[in-house]
Amino acid sequence: MSSSTTRILPQFLTTTRNTLLRLRQHQTTTTTIRNATTRAAATSNITNHTSINAAGNNNAKRSTYSLSSSAATTERFFSTDSSSEIIPGVGRGKTSTGLVGIPVDHDAIPKLIHKNQALLSKMAASDMPPTAQYYINVAQISNYRIQACHDHPNDPEAIEELCQCGQIEELVIQADNEMIVLDMYLTNRWWEMVTDTEIEYGEPEDDRG
Q1: DSSP 7-47
Q2: What average pLDDT does the segment 188-208 reach?
Q3: Between residues 11 and 77, the one the model is more confident about
Q4: CA–CA distance from 30 to each of 12, 22, 33, 173 (Å)?
């Protein structure tokens, strides 16, 4: 081996060893960074999962509170007396009329009083004489229904039983329809077209068969 080769070989070995050492240090550093990143990501996932669970629990609590509040509101809507029992399908517990286009109206009783009173007031302020048969008929019906409402202010079923003209919601509609007829009656002064007619009754025949 030449003298130049003898001098170069140790330098080459030294350079190679230093390169290998640097590569090993770089691999160690890379592994350390990778492990640290993995741990940080895992910690972040755990934190996020905990936050989500906490948020979910809070949302669940808020939802439960909202549902409870809604239920309480519904109960207050169907009952004016907190001590009264709500019976499904009866009174404040009624949820359907069973009639298409006619929803349940839990304020039907005061409406029925108001609308029938409006009929009486309009007739009283009109030119139609109280002796007109239409006036008499409408006044009797309106006064009867108003009195039924005053006697049973919290019992629509009792009012329906007394009036025998449908459900309480239908009685309100009937008052609205009667107001339309009354307006036409007053506009055309139809009471003036009604004349008394004498009815002759013949002697009953003796049917001896």
Answers
A1: HHHHHHHHHHHHHHHHHHHHHHHHHHHHHHHHHHHHHHHHH
A2: 83
A3: 11
A4: 27, 12, 5, 84
